[in-house]
Design goal:
Protein name: Reverse transcriptase domain-containing protein
Keywords: Signal
Number of helices: 20
Radius of gyration: 31 Å
Order of helices and strands: HEEHEHEEEHHHHHHEEHHHHHHHHHHH
Shape: elongated
Strand content: under 5%
Low-confidence stretches: 173-179
Organism: Solanum verrucosum
Pfam families: RVT_1, zf-RVT
Distance between the termini: 61 Å
Length: 449
C-alpha cells in the first residue's frame, strides 16, 4: 500500500472513531473527557481510549469490525493488548471475551521509551542505564584514548540520556553530576529539558498534549504560573509545578526572556540553572581548535598535576620498581617538571620545535607555561598556535615515556619532531579559513608553505 493510500485509509478510521464519540451511550476515559479524545494514531500504531464499561468498548469493536469489512485490514490479536484499571475481575473477563485482546501490564515500551502510569523509580530506568553501560563496555570503547572516551560521553551517551530527559523527569538517584571536561550535569539538563514542556503549557502551544493537560489539570485557570496543583493530581504534574518556581523568573508577560526572539532554548536554560562558575583563565588555550582532542586531554590533566608520574605514584603510595626518568636515563626523579621541561629527550624536541616555529616559551611548569602564553600581547591565533605546538610536545613526551615504560620501545626524537611538525601543519592548513586565522595570515603562510 502506498503512503498516500495508507494515510487516506487511516483518516477514514480516525473519522469513524470520532463519530463513535458523539454517540450517547459512549463514555470517554475520565482523563480524556475534556478533550473528547478517544484514539491516537501514529504510523501503523493505534491506541484506543474509553471508559471501562461494555457499551463503550462494544462501540469501539464495532468500528474496528466495520473498518475490516471495508478495507480488508484486520487487527493482529497477537500484537494487540488491552489495559484496564478500576474494574473488578468479572468485568475484566467480560472485556477480554468481547475484544479478544490480551491483557497487558504497564510499563510497556513504545518508541524506545517505557510508558508507566506510576511515579518513576530507579528500576524503571534500568533500560537507560543498560544502554549506556553497553556503549561503555563495548569492544571499540575499550580501545579508545581518554579523549575518545570523552567524545563518547559527550556525544553518544549524552544523546541517549537527552532523548529520555526531554520526556521524563528522571529519579534523582540515577543522576550523576559531572564537570571539568564539558560534561553536562544530567540533573540540571533534565530540568532544563522538561522546562520546554512548561513553556509550551504556559504559552498554550497548539498541540494535542497541551490541550489535554489544560483540560485535565488547568481546567478554567488561564495562568500556568499562578496555578496550584490539587493534592490528587499526578506525581508528574506536581513535580512539574515545583520546577516552575525556579523558572518563573525567566518569563516576562508570558515571554521567555533569556533570548531576544522569545523562544525557549534548553541550552540557555541549562546555563542559567548552572549559574556563575569559577572559570579557568586558560581554558580557551587548552580547548582551542588547533589542538588535537587527545592533546587537549593530556594538557588538561597536566594542568591539574594529575599525570601519573613516578613522583606522584610515590605520593599515592603505589608500588614502582624505580623512581628514575625512563626517557633520559639520568638518575633524576621523574616529576612533571623534569619530564616535560628538564629531561634531555624533551629538551631536544623542545629546541627543534622552537627553532622551527620561532616561538620560545620561557617557563617550565605546565600551569606557568599556559599563563605565560595567555599573558603575551599576541593575537589570539598566535597564542593558540603556540599552545598547540607546546601541547603536542607534552603529549608526545608523555606517550614516549609510557611506551618506554610499558612496551620497552624507545621513541626517536627526530621521528617525534617530524610527526609534531606534520600534525601542526595539517591542523593549521585545515583551519586556515577560520575567522581567527584571517587576522594572522603571516603565520598561516609560514606554516603552510
Amino acid at each position: 500500500m502506498s503512503s498516500l493510500l495508507f494515510m487516506l485509509v487511516m483518516e477514514y478510521l480516525s473519522r469513524a472513531l470520532q463519530k463513535v464519540g458523539e454517540l450517547p451511550d459512549f463514555k470517554f476515559h475520565p482523563m480524556c473527557h475534556s478533550t473528547k479524545l478517544n484514539h491516537l494514531i501514529f504510523a501503523d500504531d493505534l491506541m484506543l481510549f474509553c471508559k471501562g464499561d461494555l457499551k463503550s468498548i462494544r462501540r469501539k469493536i464495532e468500528v474496528l469490525n466495520h473498518f475490516s469489512r471495508v478495507t480488508g485490514l484486520v487487527a493482529n490479536l497477537d500484537k494487540s493488548n488491552i489495559f484496564v484499571a478500576g474494574v473488578d475481575d468479572a468485568m475484566k473477563e467480560q472485556i477480554l471475551q468481547l475484544t479478544g485482546f490480551t491483557l497487558g501490564d504497564l510499563p510497556i515500551r513504545y518508541l524506545g521509551l517505557p510508558l508507566s502510569s506510576k511515579k518513576w523509580t530507579k528500576i524503571d530506568c534500568h533500560q537507560l542505564i543498560d544502554k549506556i553501560t553497553n556503549r561503555i563496555t563495548s569492544a571499540y570503547s575499550k580501545t579508545l584514548s581518554y579523549a575518545g572516551r570523552l567524545q563518547i560521553i559527550n556525544a553518544v551517551l549524552f544523546s541517549l540520556y537527552n532523548f529520555w530527559s526531554n520526556v521524563f523527569i528522571l529519579p534523582q538517584s540515577i543522576l550523576k553530576e559531572n564537570g571539568g571536561l564539558n560534561i553536562k550535569s544530567c540533573k540540571l539538563w533534565n530540568i532544563a529539558s522538561v522546562g520546554k514542556l512548561m513553556w509550551q503549557i504556559a504559552s498554550k502551544a497548539d498541540t494535542l498534549w497541551i490541550r489535554w493537560v489544560h483540560g485535565l489539570n488547568m481546567k478554567d485557570e488561564q495562568d500556568f504560573w499562578t496555578h496550584t496543583p490539587s493534592k490528587d493530581s499526578s506525581w508528574y504534574w506536581r513535580r512539574l509545578n515545583s520546577i516552575k518556581l525556579t523558572m518563573g523568573m525567566w518569563y516576562t508577560n508570558g515571554t521567555y526572556c533569556l533570548l531576544t526572539n522569545g523562544a525557549y532554548n534548553v541550552s540557555c536554560s541549562y546555563n542559567q540553572l548552572l549559574g556563575r562558575q569559577l572559570k579557568l583563565p586558560v581554558a580557551d588555550l587548552i580547548w582551542n581548535s588547533l589542538m588535537l582532542p587527545r592533546h587537549r586531554f593530556i594538557i588538561w590533566l597536566a594542568n591539574q598535576e594529575k599525570q601519573l608520574t613516578k613522583e606522584r605514584m610515590i605520593r599515592l603510595q603505589m608500588p614502582i620498581e624505580d623512581d628514575k626518568c625512563c626517557l633520559c636515563g639520568e638518575s633524576k626523579l621523574e616529576t612533571q617538571v623534569h619530564l616535560f621541561a628538564e629531561c634531555t629527550w624533551t629538551t631536544k624536541v623542545k629546541e627543534a620545535l622552537e627553532t622551527w616555529s620561532g616561538i620560545k616559551i620561557q617557563k617550565t611548569e605546565v600551569t606557568e607555561c599556559l599563563k605565560w602564553i595567555k599573558g603575551r600581547h599576541w593575537k589570539q591565533y598566535k597564542k593558540e598556535i603556540a599552545t598547540a605546538i607546546w601541547g603536542a610536545r607534552i603529549y608526545h613526551t608523555w606517550r614516549a615515556s609510557n611506551w618506554k615504560l610499558f612496551r620497552g620501545t624507545i621513541v626517536n626524537t627526530e621521528i617525534t619532531i617530524t610527526q609534531t611538525k606534520k600534525g601542526i601543519v595539517e591542523r593549521v592548513d585545515y583551519l586556515k579559513d577560520s575567522r581567527k586565522a584571517s587576522k594572522c595570515r603571516y603565520l598561516v603562510q609560514k606554516f603552510c608553505n
